[in-house]
Amino acid sequence: MKRICAVGAGFSGAVIARELAERGVPVLVVDERSHIAGNCHTERDADTGIMVHRYGPHIFHTADERVWSYVNRFTEMMPYTNRVKATVGGKVYSLPINLHTINQFFGKSMSPSEAQAFIEAQARTDIQDPQSFEEQGLRFVGDALYKAFFDGYTRKQWGVEPSKLPASILKRLPLRFNYDDNYFNHPYQGMPRDGYTAIVGKILDHEKIEVRLSCAFEDLDEEFEHVFYSGPLDRYFKYDLGRLRYRTLDFEEIRASGDFQGTAVMNYPDPGVPFTRISEHKHFAPWEAQSFEKTIAFREYSRACEPGDTPYYPIRLLDDKVLLEAYEDRAAQEKGVTFVGRLGTYQYLDMDVTIGRALDVMESFLS
């Protein structure tokens, strides 16, 4: 019996491999990195002992009870609420924009109904059907809040004019007229006690699964019954139609004693600040944060992804969608291969969606 190959040892490849292995199907999981868990990879920093998210912060949140139950099979999820702050014009505010943010920014003490009426008066009601990120922002909160919290940050994060980005990016962010500063609306939210790499390791821990690291799919000479490919879609076709565009991230390490910034994530929307945010990783594990004498944080810079860089965010502007559709047509004709995950489908997917889709793919494949 030929094996099945899962390309990529992140959540997509691991979940697919586990579902197959539990049904007696042998699977080879390959990843060209030297570690499992992809961009979710976590490890203890040797100097501080802090669990570090090596490719930037990952907070697990979902409304999918099936996915929440699935991850809890392989880890102990600890309580964690994502509370993001932003430094704007020398002052610190809470995100997402809530009643405290509005009152502080405008120097008022409005009630929820007063704040709602105030923001509606600020909003650009002449924009009936927002198409771009910029139009959505102006319609959403008006000129002052949009310029302060969204315009500069977005330009740094995406490297393009906000008028060129789709409105859907901003539609995901809540606007609240109470003092709730939980960044997410999902009912399930937490952080794995032992980090994300430990979860993926346990998912992959099955006698029917072989994991081969520092190994590129292109270097394999084995024939497979089927391939589940979570690598870059354009790379599978040797980029012969051109390269899909991504943003990548650079991290500047900060080491200090005690507490560096007092919170896990501080955004810097001001256009004059070159980085987008600083994340301090001890605060992602509040149950142990006080036990560390030292701290480690990272300034985060966004730029265009070049060959050899780690891709993070698919850009998906008009030109990218045209090229994507051409690759998707090729992928639909490819026999014996299913394209999955963030890179394989050229979509930015949260961890819960990645797991949910992998389970869906397996349900369809095994049926």
UniProtKB/TrEMBL annotation:
GO terms for cellular component: cytosol. It comes from the Bacteria. The keyword Flavoprotein applies. Residues 148-348 form the UDP-galactopyranose mutase C-terminal domain. InterPro entries: UDP-GALP_mutase (IPR004379), UDP-GalPyranose_mutase_C (IPR015899). Its cofactor is FAD. Belongs to the UDP-galactopyranose/dTDP-fucopyranose mutase family. This is UDP-galactopyranose mutase. It comes from Pseudovibrio exalbescens.
